[in-house]
Design a protein that fits this description.
Elements (H helix, E strand, L loop, with lengths): L1 H14 L4 E13 L4 E13 L4 E12 L2 E17 L2 E16 L5 E15 L4 E7 L1 E8 L2 E7 L5 E8 L1
Antiparallel strand pairs: 1-2, 1-10, 2-3, 3-4, 4-5, 5-6, 6-7, 6-8, 7-10, 8-9
Length: about 160
């Protein structure tokens, strides 16, 4: 039993030797010409990078679209599959739960599960900029939208700024 505990502690120590915590936030503004709606989203993010390839994180956010307001929480795992100098390509896989209310209607609960591709630019050793565009998965009333499959709308474009410590 002692050997098992020691082995697990050693493996955990090796996995977290280069790990870093980060905080940041997401800000998104999009205009949909078909519906003439402007979407505003702000969401603080926090996470833990185990190594250069794997990260776990989450965001808590607020979305506003005309007469619709939504609060959400969305944990995810990030896989960075390409890194060259200051540029990285990544994909976030996760799920989210939202509670939204449109003026004059009852509140509704939504959820999503899927993948969001992105690109990261390391601005300095501590700061990085991440952009996401697109969504592949299932979304039902999450932040006021629903989709099954691939979505490439303006609502799926976001920018985040991270501080690693």
């Amino acid at each position: 039993m002692k050997k098992l505990v020691l082995t697990l502690a050693l493996v955990f120590g090796m996995l977290t030797a280069n790990a870093q915590f980060f905080v940041g936030g997401q800000f998104a503004v999009a205009y949909d010409g078909d519906t003439e709606n402007t979407t505003f989203r702000i969401a603080p993010e926090f996470g833990y990078a185990f190594n250069d390839a794997w990260t776990v994180a989450g965001s808590i956010g607020y979305t506003h679209v005309d007469n619709y307001n939504s609060f959400y929480i969305a944990p995810y795992a990030r896989w960075t599959f390409f890194k060259k100098s200051f540029l990285s390509l990544l994909v976030d896989g996760g799920f989210g739960v939202s509670v939204g209310k449109q003026k004059g209607l009852d509140a509704d609960t939504g959820f999503e599960i899927g993948f969001k591709p992105g690109i990261a630019f390391d601005l300095t050793d501590n700061f990085s900029l991440v952009a996401h565009y697109g969504f592949l998965g299932y979304r039902d009333k999450f932040n006021g939208s629903s989709v099954s499959g691939l979505s490439l709308s303006g609502n799926d474009l976001s920018f985040s700024l991270y501080y690693k410590f």
